[in-house]
Design a protein that fits this description.
Elements: H1 14-24, H2 26-35, H3 38-57, H4 62-102, H5 110-120, H6 123-130
Length: about 160
């Protein structure tokens, strides 16, 4: 009778089996693999290896910690994207407004032109409030200065 582990844990990579064995135990792995159809076993082993590596790196949260970290990274990037898109919109509005103001009749006072521009283009004071950030007098691009830089780490070995 052939060993159930042989097709999925090659002898040239003993670490792969060792880590899965350490975390889940050989009998548990054997039971899991026997319950699966043969065509699904390779993917199951890949998943077990990933989960075992994650559990060794983070004994408390395991792969849930990795998933949570990646979800928070996606949220941060979505927030940064929203701020960048809003800034682009503000710049476009400023350019459009400047074009309109430049085409005003010459009898309009320069102070009135400035008021028109500042009333219509004060995006940076409104932007953080619009995006539910605490308002500040500084540019909205400073919103992320308190965030930790994103870590680059892989859980696949």
């Amino acid at each position: 009778q052939e060993c159930i582990f042989a097709p999925y844990f090659p002898s040239d990579d003993p670490r792969k089996f060792a880590i899965v064995h350490k975390v889940f135990g050989a009998s548990n792995i054997s039971k899991m693999l026997q319950e699966l159809p043969i065509h699904q076993r390779a993917e199951a082993v890949n998943s077990l290896v990933y989960e075992a590596n994650a559990r060794v790196r983070d004994p408390v949260y395991g792969c849930v910690g990795a998933i949570s970290y990646l979800q928070s990274q996606v949220s941060q990037l979505q927030m940064q994207l929203a701020v960048a898109q809003a800034e682009i919109l503000c710049i476009q509005m400023q350019q459009d407004s400047a074009t309109v103001t430049d085409s005003l009749p010459t009898h309009v006072d320069q102070d009135d032109k400035f008021m028109l521009l500042s009333e219509n283009n004060n995006c940076y004071g409104v932007l953080p409030q619009y995006l539910n950030f605490p308002s500040s007098s500084s540019s909205s691009s400073n919103v992320f200065q308190d965030y930790e830089p994103l870590k680059s780490e892989t859980f696949w070995t």
